[in-house]
Amino acid sequence: MIEQKSQSQELLERRKNIVANGVGVFNTATVKEAKGAIITDVDGRELIDFAGGIGVVNAGHCPEPVVEAIREQAGKYLHTSFNVVTYEPYIKLCEELAEILPHGEKTKAMLISTGAEAVENAIKIARQATKRPAVICFTEAYHGRTLMAMSLTSKVNYKFSSGPFAPEVYRIPFPNFYKYSGTQEMEDFVDTELNRLRESAHSMVDINSVAAIIIEPIQGEGGFNPVPQRYLEGLRSFCDENGVLLIMDEIQSGFCRTGHWASWQHYKVQPDISTYAKSLGSGLPIAAVLGRAEIMDAAGPGTIGGTYIGSPVCCAAALATIQYMKDINLNERAVQIGEIVTDRMRKLQKENSGIGDVRGIGAMIGIEFVKDNDPGKPNTELCAKIVKGCAEDGLILLSAGTFKNVIRILSPLVITDEQLNKGLDILVNQIKKNT
């Protein structure tokens, strides 16, 4: 008897037949419709979503106010190009972003379509503002897959056979306390890392040629690694002392994920320029660069942006998303979700040596799997088994980290406690089953 294929299997086979192999397959789930924190696949099976479209649907799948705003704007006009015909949704969104994410006394903004575009434009602005060419970035960083963004990205599998890369990019170690502290206490570790930063100005690149340092305050693809508070404060001081602009990439950590509009607000360390995308538009392609007005205005006319900068439909979606996040207080909900996830995972960690670390801020939580409780022995195989087992049990998960040994929690923040705990039950069961 020939076993009949499911609709999901058929769809995945069609994908394999027609879509270029280089397009990533991080999970084998399919979708027919999605609402809130639940994805229904093409076979009608309901899946709990802990991936959130890679951190894009903090406000949930298809929030009604956002869907309605999209419909309304689509009936008016779809595209004029903001370069050619000015429209109000673009300006209103920039005003809203400047209000919730202020940079100094006066903030200015620009809109584009993707996170990688935001990074590319942030670097161009920094170079024009400082008249300097070099950029410093960090190990384990991820900033996108266009040329400059890929050059800044650390993870080599995103860069395989894609060089040569952009010049004048220099990389220093990210202060990953769990992985690299050894026997040092946090205070001593941060002192060591700040000394390393200062030494780089003499041993790696002339600091007077450095336009900017770009950092994710909480690394995303790198493994949900939060920067130590005092390191970020020291980095801010180092930039000020040397005329270097500090760029913070908040593309995955922004819009309520950490319990703030941006994670730099948690640290109370303000960037000169910052980048946003993902959950800004609830799934529509929109991104933003914000910065101090005098820095943003340093870019010459026509040197930043593009044809599709700030699509009016995407602007409408973003404005509705921000208002919806305010109305239901998703920043507060992120803190609650983070407490539930962290509490359950840390209890399990105490009885399971396979869990090396549980870390994060707000609802941006990572669980790192290692062998023999050793940070130097990433357990990639275990992490892969857990992700696969969870998928079979109805939970969509993503891994992260240089060695793909970190499970990241990116559930929509509208998830109910019942859905959250049901998902965590599946995750806990798979961890216990495989360790």
From TrEMBL:
Chain ranges passing through the membrane: none
Entry EC no(s): 2.6.1.19
Stored SUPFAM superfamilies: PLP-dependent transferases
InterPro entries hit by this protein: 4NH2But_aminotransferase_bac, Aminotrans_3, Aminotrans_3_PPA_site, Class-III_PLP-dep_AT, PyrdxlP-dep_Trfase, PyrdxlP-dep_Trfase_major, PyrdxlP-dep_Trfase_small
GO molecular function: 4-aminobutyrate:2-oxoglutarate transaminase activity
UniProt keyword Transferase, yes or no: yes
Enzyme class: transferase
Keyword Transferase in record: yes
Keyword terms: Aminotransferase, Pyridoxal phosphate, Transferase
Cofactor(s), by name: pyridoxal 5'-phosphate
PROSITE patterns found in the cross-reference section: AA_TRANSFER_CLASS_3 (PS00600)
Pfam families: Aminotran_3
Listed NCBIfam families: GABAtrnsam (TIGR00700)
Family statement: Belongs to the class-III pyridoxal-phosphate-dependent aminotransferase family.
Protein name: 4-aminobutyrate--2-oxoglutarate transaminase
Organism this protein belongs to: Christiangramia antarctica
